[in-house]
């Protein structure tokens, strides 16, 4: 791979964040033969991450798309650590924590101190300025946005975003890694929401306005978009899958960053998040989840 980091693959990939995205990123890197270190402050979350990866690999084996030997080898390539110091020898680090600029900046400041001057620092952010994250380091030319789609093992796209200082070498290395992982690449300027969420999240927000105003039921809104525009999942169901807190955070980034009232977060979306109805991960969002799976929420 000519566009790889210094002409070769990274020896160690660091993944910060043991949630759904971090686990998926770690999984695909490991199944492609790369050594992976997952970092999170909570050992409990790290244990849950490994359990999630095992289940995901098991499902892929059952479908016949992954051999048992490949799955076993992948699990053997993944280590977990609770200290960012453990990433000292990582060649390439992908941050995949909560969509909060302050949290991410603090992580990048620490990474700047503990990693090599040659280490590329990528963020899986779906909306936050890469230029701002790079400014938290002494090597902003090695900071880049590398936004994977959820679920990572199945979705083909990686959205790359170059900050103001991101070098051509960093971009090519990141693009090469994404392609090695079997992903297609779309490139965005460093603008709020980048490409995908600049279009997607306002659509979800508008669906919440339709629900709040009684234009239609959640089921009819989703059915209309699925059958009328050929989307595999309606916007409200998709919001539940993404996480309503994440959708709200991105809408706030768009509203604050672009200053246009059309990006005003829907009050109903804010209300659901305030109530703890965060979607599938919480067992309730627009719809209910659990043993009876995806029952209609009461509005």
Write the layout of secondary structure elements.
Layout: E1 12-16, H1 20-31, E2 35-39, H2 43-62, H3 68-76, E3 78-81, E4 92-95, H4 101-114, E5 120-123, H5 130-135, E6 143-148, E7 157-162, H6 168-180, E8 184-188, H7 196-212, H8 218-229, H9 235-242, H10 244-258, H11 267-274, E9 287-288, E10 295-296
Parallel strand pairs: 1-2, 1-4, 2-3, 4-5, 5-6, 7-8
Antiparallel strand pairs: 6-7, 9-10
Helix pairs in contact: 1-2, 1-3, 7-9, 7-10, 10-11
Please list the strands of the largest sheet in the order they lie side by side: 3-2-1-4-5-6-7-8
Helix content: 40-55%
Instruction: Provide mean pLDDT, rounded.
Output: 94
Strand content: 5-15%
- Helical segment tally? 11
Structural class: alpha/beta
The main β sheet shows up as: 8 strands, mixed
Order of helices and strands: EHEHHEEHEHEEHEHHHHHEE
Shape: globular
What does this structure look like?
The chain is α/β, with parallel strands linked by helices. Helices cover 45% and strands 14% of the residues. It has eleven helices and ten strands. It has helices at 20-31, 43-62, 68-76, 101-114, 130-135, 168-180, 196-212, 218-229, 235-242, 244-258, 267-274; strands spanning 12-16, 35-39, 78-81, 92-95, 120-123, 143-148, 157-162, 184-188, 287-288, 295-296. The strands form two sheets. It has an eight-stranded mixed sheet, with helices on both faces. Strand 5 (120-123), helix 5 (130-135) and strand 6 (143-148) form a beta-alpha-beta unit. Helix 7 crosses helix 10 (244-258) and helix 10 crosses helix 11 (267-274). The longest helix has 20 residues, at 43-62. It is globular, with a radius of gyration of 19 Å. The model is unreliable at 292-299 (pLDDT under 50).
């Amino acid at each position: 791979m000519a566009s790889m980091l210094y002409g070769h693959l990274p020896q160690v990939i660091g993944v910060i964040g043991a949630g759904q995205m971090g686990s998926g990123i770690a999984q695909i890197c490991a199944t492609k033969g790369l050594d992976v270190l997952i970092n999170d402050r909570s050992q409990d979350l790290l244990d849950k991450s490994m359990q999630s990866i095992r289940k995901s690999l098991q499902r892929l084996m059952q479908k016949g798309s992954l051999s048992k030997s490949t799955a076993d080898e992948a699990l053997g390539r993944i280590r977990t650590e609770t200290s960012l110091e453990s990433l000292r020898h990582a060649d390439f680090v992908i941050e995949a924590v909560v969509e909060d600029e302050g949290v991410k900046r603090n992580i990048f400041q620490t990474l700047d101190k503990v990693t090599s001057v040659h280490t590329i620092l990528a963020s899986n952010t779906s909306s936050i300025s890469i230029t701002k994250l790079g400014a938290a380091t002494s090597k902003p030319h090695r900071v880049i946005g590398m936004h994977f789609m959820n679920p990572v093992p199945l979705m083909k796209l990686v959205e790359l975003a170059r900050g103001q200082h991101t070098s051509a070498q960093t971009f090519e290395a990141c693009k090469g890694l994404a392609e090695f992982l079997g992903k297609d690449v779309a490139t965005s300027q460093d603008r709020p929401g980048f490409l995908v969420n600049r279009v997607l999240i306002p659509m979800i927000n508008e669906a919440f306005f339709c629900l709040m105003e009684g234009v239609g039921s959640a089921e009819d809104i989703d059915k209309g978009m699925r059958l009328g525009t050929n989307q595999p999942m309606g916007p409200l169901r998709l919001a539940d899958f993404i996480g309503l807190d994440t959708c709200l955070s991105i809408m706030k980034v768009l509203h604050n960053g672009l200053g246009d009232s059309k990006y005003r977060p829907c009050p109903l979306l804010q209300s659901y998040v305030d109530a703890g109805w965060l979607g599938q991960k919480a067992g309730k969002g627009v719809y209910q989840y659990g043993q009876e799976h995806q029952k209609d929420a009461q509005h």
